[in-house]
């Protein structure tokens, strides 16, 4: 369990005080995967470094498994950090050490018994699928393999919590998928709690239960992934969603269609597509719906469907048909100029 309560972090520089993290609270329950998403400079790295106190927060509390991190002595903190594994965008492997040594050296440093070390190396290399690379050096591995070694190294400490700092940002899409699958697997197998930071909405979509959207050091919106994906409120959330869904209609095309009706984005939750609801609407009201684009997003905990539609008809009748869609639980967004940009 990870809990941050009103955490802030300020840096003092010649130019003045920079508030990198501002009053952030979050709660990752045991066995859950939570993600913090934000653009460059939003404060994500500083925030995740506050969790293991690599950065000491200026204000607020950090709690891990009911231990108040912010109140521990230095030696207690070193002991508690053994419960936290961390993986990074740049992998942070020792270049002059073999894969086996990269995993075993940190274990020696944290005082794991000598006889236990080779067993753990064996076990976790097998879990990440790299048993045969035991004697290889990092330079002989692909990016994805390096990240697997880093994951094995983190898991070998047998921590309760894994922090992931942009772990897939340096990887190609296919390798990203395989690393995300591996994170899902270790979460399911070991019940390990994961907090990750990312600027890729796809990472949130695929593996997270809960998402925090960070902007200017603050959490501007958060919630279960399925809620945020189906009813985004903040413009930053909508902008990130735009990176994974097809919002490709041109302004001119939309403007032209708007002359004869409304252009809308409809969002449906669950497995059902929007077709039956649209068919029922067309039957009930004197309107003609026309699907312009359709998109299904699979999330860790569900499915969301988006339809961009043109609904032709008299204004009042279109209004009544939209009220009907709303009553069926459909989320409706107007395709306006602002929407077109996001
Ligand atoms: N050690 C530091 N000293 C001064 N300012 C810092 C320090 N670390 C971070 N900052 C500032 O804090 C703000 C947040 O930075 P941070 O690296 O946490 O953001 P980020 O969301 O992780 O961005 P990126 O994805 O680019 O790493 C930035 O304005 C950054 O310049």
From TrEMBL:
PROSITE patterns: ABC_TRANSPORTER_1, ABC_TRANSPORTER_2. Pfam families: ABC_tran, NIL. Keywords: Amino-acid transport, ATP-binding, Cell membrane, Membrane, Nucleotide-binding, Translocase, Transport. It comes from the Bacteria. GO terms for molecular function: ATP binding. Residues 2-241 form the ABC transporter domain. Transmembrane segments: none annotated. CDD domains: ABC_MetN_methionine_transporter. This is ATP-binding cassette domain-containing protein.
């Amino acid at each position: 369990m990870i809990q941050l309560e009103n955490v802030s972090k300020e840096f003092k520089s010649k130019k003045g005080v920079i508030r990198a993290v501002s009053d952030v609270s979050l709660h990752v329950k045991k066995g859950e995967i939570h993600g913090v998403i934000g653009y460059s400079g939003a404060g994500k790295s500083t925030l995740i470094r506050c969790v293991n106190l690599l950065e000491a927060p200026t204000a607020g509390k950090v709690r891990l498994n009911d231990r108040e991190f912010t109140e521990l002595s230095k030696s207690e903190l070193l002991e508690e950090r053994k419960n936290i594994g961390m993986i990074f965008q740049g992998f942070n492997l020792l270049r002059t050490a073999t894969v086996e040594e990269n995993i075993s050296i940190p274990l020696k440093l944290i005082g794991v018994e000598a006889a236990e070390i080779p067993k753990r190396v064996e076990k976790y290399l097998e879990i990440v699928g790299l048993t045969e690379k035991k004697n290889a050096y990092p330079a002989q591995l692909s990016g994805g393999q390096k990240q697997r070694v880093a994951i094995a190294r983190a898991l070998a400490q047998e921590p309760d919590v894994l922090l992931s700092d942009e772990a897939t940002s340096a990887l190609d899409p296919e390798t990203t998928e395989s690393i995300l699958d591996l994170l899902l697997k270790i979460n399911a197998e070991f019940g390990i709690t994961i907090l990750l930071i990312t600027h890729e909405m796809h990472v949130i979509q695929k593996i997270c239960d809960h998402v925090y959207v960070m902007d200017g050091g603050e959490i501007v919106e958060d919630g279960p992934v399925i809620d945020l994906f189906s009813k985004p409120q903040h413009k930053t959330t909508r902008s990130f969603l735009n990176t994974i869904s097809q919002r490709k209609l041109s302004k001119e095309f939309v403007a032209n269609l708007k002359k004869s009706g409304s252009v809308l984005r409809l969002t449906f939750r669950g497995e059902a597509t929007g077709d039956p609801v649209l068919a029922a609407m067309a039957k009930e009201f004197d309107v003609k719906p026309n699907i312009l684009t359709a998109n299904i997003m699979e999330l860790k905990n569900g499915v969301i469907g988006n339809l961009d539609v043109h609904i032709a008809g008299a204004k009042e009748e279109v209004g009544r048909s939209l009220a009907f869609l709303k009553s069926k639980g459909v989320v409706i967004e107007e395709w306006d100029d602002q929407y077109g940009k996001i």
